[in-house]
Amino acid sequence: MNELATKYDPSAVEEKWYAYWMEHRLFHSEPDEREPYTIVIPPPNVTGVLHMGHMLNNTIQDILTRRARMQGKNALWVPGTDHAAISTEAKVVAKLASEGIAKTDLSREEFLNHAWDWTNKYGGIILQQLRKLGASCDWERTAFTMDDIRSESVIRVFNKLYDKGYIYRGVRMVNWDPKALTALSDEEVIYKEEQSHLFHLRYRVEGEEDKYIIVATTRPETILGDTAVCVNPNDPRYTWLKGKKVIVPLVGRAVPIIMDEYVEMDFGTGCLKVTPAHDVNDYMLGDKYNLPSIDIFNDNGTISEAGGMYVGMDRFDVRKQIMIDLDKAGLVEKVEDYVNKVGHSERTDAVIEPKLSMQWFVKMEEIVKPALASVMDDDIKFIPAKFKNTYRHWMTNIKDWCISRQLWWGHQIPAWFLPEGGYVVAENEEEALLKAIEKSGNTSLTIADLKRDPDCLDTWFSSWLWPISLFNGILDPDNKEFKYYYPTADLVTAPDIIFFWVARMIIAGYEFADNKPFNNVYFTGIVRDKIGRKMSKSLGNSPDPLDLIANFGADGVRMGLMLGAPAGNDIMYDDSLCEQGRNFCNKIWNAFRLVKGWEVSDEAQQPESAAAGIRWFAAKLGNTIAEVDDLMGKFRISEALMAIYRLFWDEFSSWYLEVVKPAYGQPVDKKTFDATLGFFDTLLRLLHPFMPFITEELWQHLADRKAGESIMYALLPEATVCEAPILAQFETLKEVIAGIRTIRKQKQIAQKEPLVLHIKGAHDNSLDAILAKMANLSAIEQVEEKTAASSAFIVGAVEYSVPLESKINVEEELAKLNKELEYYTKFLAGVEKKLSNEKFVNNAPEAVVAVERKKQSDATEKLEAIRASIAALRQ
Q1: End-to-end CA distance of the chain, in Å?
Q2: Are 300 and 343 in a shared domain?
Q3: What is the dihedral of CA 738, 742, 743, 748, to 10 degrees?
Q4: pLDDT at 1 > cutoff 60
Q5: Residue 470 φ then ψ, to 5°
Q6: Which terminus has fewer CB within 10 Å in the chain: N or C?
Q7: What is the pLDDT of residues 18-70, one digit of tens each?
Q8: 293 part of a folded domain
Q9: Which residue intervals of 343-428 are DSSP H helices?
Q10: Do the Cβ atoms of 668 and 593 come closer than 8 Å?
Q11: What is the dihedral of CA 839, 844, 847, 849, to 10 degrees?
């Protein structure tokens, strides 16, 4: 290896070692006799770029993967991307529009060519960016939800579910995205609280001059589709309306009054307008009372011909205009400010329009049962466990899954419509034709006579198969890789896709592989800025992850993120976290350079202090390894990292190296040097999963390595838990040394000036060699009483004192002590005056009185110590 640079340069180190890992295929895995450890990446959108959430998620996955390798497991982390139907199609449509091309001007095949061009150009950028982070994915296995294996798997699963009766087609109320022009599932709708208005409108009663009822609505534009008004039959205000009709304002259509207890008497006016085509609950009422449905909206949110008025106008423009027209007609009772939750598309942020639409659905009631039981019984463990309640609530209130999307980019639904009506579901055209002939009895049918359903499947319909389809477990369930790598070990994901993805993968695992897809699900928190806001481009509060890596180094950023990332809890990110990570890298680097810079002597004898220091650190190291193993087993990853951080910074650097380092200009004995390098090797291995680059660089410098050799395959050290007396002895030793250093600071005595230490009491002298070296003591003496003109402190029950006759000016010291005596005497008098006041003692809170009593006790103790010091100086 080349000479170690004076300063740590992350960019040079990171580029060099990632290239080395790739060159030697160190991330690649093939089935063998070892225990497998499999983790699959939550596939990012093919058009996505790295953000802070990805950084956190993938850092955790890499830590788990690298640690598994170092435990001797056959670790495989499979990467890939998701075709992201809605967002990718939107980007392609926008690009085409900028070139003056409309999607409607193109055939499906032409549009898909453009989409594939876009995907090939921009897709996978995020996977390239993950390499900067150090992600040890098996890039040779990179998958895409629309590659051949994944696409064929989706079609096979659709057919299986259809054949089992789980998939059906029908007209249902769906969430419609007027911007993306597609249906969405319930989980793709985000409800936002908005300042709105409640419009109170007058519906005149048919045949009753000057009589009307008041109907309150937040969406006056939908009166164009009203087909009834509903009241509660128990509401005495409206019993007179039974059997009557009312006139829809402006529209002039007479609609019936229906009476149903669904309407809450104390909400609004107690009168509910019923628009079956544009509200889920109205649709149920319409179905119950056989009401007509009038769809007043075009797919893009403008008013349709069926609306009868305002044709072609946007729905929100109509809301403003219809209120003007209603007011002119004297049909507005009043308008109130109102706060309500409005559904928005998770992908485009457009306001969702409930809409009756012919769609494909998966029946969920039966298929979810094994998936619910596995999580509730902890066969699949959620970390943290609090998310089990969220999961249970959703799974026990699940609705049928709308899986069709009105898009071209995605997996086209494998259904073909017959000329005379009806359809067949098949895996390909040849099978579709055979089924169509069998169904129709028409042997002259050709594939040209059949029309394939133009819709695509919901993106999640492919990603729910991810852990199975990555190993071709749908198409070839008996293949060697699927049997070896499935089920996977751990899943790392954000809790906001627990329904979209996690739950559905578990459902798919039991339905298509008869087994869970993973053993554990680790939910990350949300990365927020230091004032608690979720990081986003729109707020401008999210740093560019690649800029952070450039500034602080990948290891620094990884450590910074993980220090504040307990499972399931949000991370309050601040650049200071990454600075702490960078500083730690520099600490490791400088400690390594210090050790490697020592001159080594084969003849030098090992000092007693070094031998004791080695015994102590070996015990400390063994216990920390056990602590880290325990914490990692509980997925308390940030706590495990902190334990290693404290071990290296507080114990190894601040104490061990100081204990064993040779005197200036002197060599270190080989025994101590070898032990120190051995400790460094262990520390680097402990740190490697968290900080892969700097640990690889330094590990390679520790010894001569063969080509292709890497720390990532060096086994993790085994824990050696012990209750060695030396651990407690050393903690006492630290306190004694700290006491002596305090005296030096107070009395302005240089470290290089030797001191004598007097000890009164039962002192353990087993580490006196370290004590003498670290505190620079010329003698350690047991005494009956401390001498005059000495400074003392107590550790446990032992009094330690440093004679200072020759070190201090007695007159100056007495003046200083008398000043302290005067201050604490006045302070104590003030406290005792307050405590002698019965009114204060009887009426003040108990905690406040307790604080004053503590002040009294501390001041009394301090005065005794000052008086004793004065007496000693005057002897």
Answers
A1: 65
A2: yes
A3: 130
A4: no
A5: -60, -25
A6: C
A7: 999 999 999 999 999 999 999 999 999 888 888 888 999 999 999 999 999 99
A8: yes
A9: 369-376, 387-396
A10: no
A11: -20
Domain closes at, from 722, 740, 767: 722
Residues 6+ apart with CB under 8 A from 665: none
Q: Which residues contact 824 (CB under 8 A, 6 or more apart)?
A: 859, 862, 863, 866
Task: Judge contact between 54 and 524, C-beta under 8 A.
Answer: no
Q: Where are the alpha helices (DSSP H) in 329-386?
A: 369-376
Q: Count how many domains the chain has.
A: 5
Residue 672 belongs to some domain of the structure? yes
Q: What pLDDT does residue 50 have?
A: 86
Say yes or no: 708 and 754 in one domain: no
Domain of 818, in residue numbers: 810-874
Asked whether the beta carbons of 613 and 768 are under 8 A apart, the reply is no
What number of CA atoms fall less than 13 Å from residue 469's CA on the CB side? Answer: 29
> Which are the contacts of 270, defined by CB distance < 8 A and separation ≥ 6?
231, 232, 235, 237, 238, 263, 264
Answer yes or no: do 700 and 815 share one domain. Answer: no
In a domain, 97, yes or no: no
Assign 274 to helix, strand or coil.
Answer: strand
Question: What would the pLDDT profile of 181-211 be if each residue is shown by its tens digit?
Answer: 899 888 788 899 999 999 999 999 998 878 9
| Per-residue tokens: 197 | 């208005």
Q: Provide the residue type at 757 as one letter.
A: L
Report the CATH number that the domain containing residue 666 is assigned in CATH: 1.10.730.10
Domain containing residue 868: CATH number: 1.10.287
Q: How far is CA 492 from CA 136, 259, 465, 593, in A?
A: 15, 51, 16, 37
- The structure tokens listed for 687 are 């740190």
Give which of 653, 654, 655, 648 is closest to 628, Cα–Cα.
Answer: 648
In a domain, 338, yes or no: yes
Which of 667, 698, 722 terminates a domain? The answer is: 722
Region 400-419 average pLDDT: 95
- Convert 400-435 to b/e letters by CB count within 10 Å (16 or more is b): bbbbbbbbbbbbbbbbbebeeeebbbbeeeeebbeb
Place 873 in a pLDDT band, splitting at 50, 70 and 90: low
Q: Are 838 and 766 in the same domain?
A: no
Ranking 428-432, 497-501, 552-556 by mean pLDDT, the lowest is 497-501
Please state, in angstroms and rounded to a whole number, the distance separating the CA atoms of residues 350 and 827: 68
In this structure, are 700 and 582 located in the same domain? yes
Q: How many CB atoms lie within 10 A of CB 70?
A: 20
Cα separation of 755 and 835, whole Å?
Answer: 44
pTM for the predicted model, two decimal places: 0.84
Closest by CA position to 133, among listed 8, 5, 9, 15: 15
Amino acid identity of 650? Answer: D
Query: What would the mean pLDDT of 615-634 be, rounded to a whole number?
Result: 96
Query: Token match 């007496």: residue?
Result: 871
What are the structure tokens assigned to 599, written together? 């001159």
Q: What is the 3-state secondary structure (H, E, C) of 844-858?
A: CCHHHHHHHHHHHHH
What ranges make up the beta strands (E) of 53-150?
74-78, 80-81, 143-144
Q: What is the mean pLDDT of residues 654-682?
A: 96
pLDDT at 632: 96
* DSSP track, 563-619: HT--TTS-EE--HHHHHHHHHHHHHHHHHHHHHHTS-EESSSPPPHHHHHHHHHHHH
What CATH number is given to the structural domain containing 745? 3.30.2320.20
Q: Calculate mean pLDDT across residues 348-376.
A: 94
Rg, the chain, Cα only: 37
Q: How far apart (Å, rounded) are the C-alpha atoms in residues 240 and 319?
A: 31
Confidence of residue 806 (pLDDT cuts 50, 70, 90): low
| 440-472 burial code (b ≥16 CB/10 A, e <16) | beeeebeeebbebbebbbbbbbbbbbbbbbbbb
